[in-house]
Amino acid sequence: MISIDSNSASARGALSRHTILLANLGMLLTAMVWGLSFVSTKVLTEDGIGMSPVQIYLYRFTLAYLIILCVCHKQLFAYSWRDEFLFLLLGMSGGSIYFITENIAVTQTAVANVSLITTLSPLITIFLVGALYRSERPGRWIVIGSLIALLGVAFVVFGGASEASFHPVGDLLALGAAVSFAIYSILIKKINATYSAWFITRKSFFYGIVTALPFLLMEPESSRAPFSVLARPEAWGNLAFLGLVCSLAAYLLMASAIKVIGPVKASNYLYAQPIVTMLAGWIILHENVGWPGWLGCALIIGGLWLGETLNRRRCG
């Protein structure tokens, strides 16, 4: 988002169609690689490697942070302590708290529950933006389209999930992860006008790593894989994908996209994650996809298209 006041909409209107198209493609690519990230994470947690969720988070984000530090290192601190605190909140909401609560939730409830509940993040973002910024209140069709897309996610997630059921602790942790990432989207909107996407990503990664360290210390040592597993090709290969593509590239793309198209539209692309995960399982792992999955894909794509198209016609 260009700014956080009433001028933001007019500022976006002044952007070229080419810039807006690139921002939309960037968020679509982000959703795609995040959908694929579940496969890499699963490989790293299996018996052959056995990394803990906190280990995976720290390894992938430390790798991404070191790379981005080589490119963006001239300015060390933010312009004010207030902004520095906002970067701390960014690191926690979009990094340590989000990933750790999500990964713990998987151990406390069905994976299908976690997949669906964390996908509430775009919808939560819509209502948070509407509550915080009057000029940015989403149109009725955007909300309706998002609800249709969320229904599609339910078909994709629960279509082949016979183990889905209600587990209060895990489900509440998953909801906390969804709220956490929605807060991340709002905070980026607030700080995007002052700092570059590189600086925002570097600072948020740093604070995400720092605030994740206490979680690592609380883990029993038996749950962590030895450092020597990093010598295995499947370990460093998947960590390289998670760190360089899913963390570094994807977060840079998201920060840049929010500056152009805003947090609501950018977050709506996250509904595409379960589609990518489902298709990856179908193509790579040869998992069976039934009619609920295909219906869910149609509802997600149709809901997002309907909301965007009808909202544009109403505004025009």
Task: Walk me through the structure.
This protein has 316 residues and is mainly alpha-helical. The chain has a domain at 7-127 and 164-262. 76% of the residues lie in helices and 0% in strands. It has helices at residues 7-13, 17-45, 53-71, 81-108, 111-118, 121-132, 140-158, 168-191, 197-218, 233-268, 273-283, 291-315. Helix 4 (81-108) packs antiparallel against helix 5 (111-118), helix 5 (111-118) runs parallel beside helix 8 (168-191) and helix 8 crosses helix 10 (233-268). The protein is globular. The two termini are 21 Å apart. Residues 1-12 have low confidence and may be disordered.
Fold blueprint:
Elements: H1 7-13, H2 17-45, H3 53-71, H4 81-108, H5 111-118, H6 121-132, H7 140-158, H8 168-191, H9 197-218, H10 233-268, H11 273-283, H12 291-315
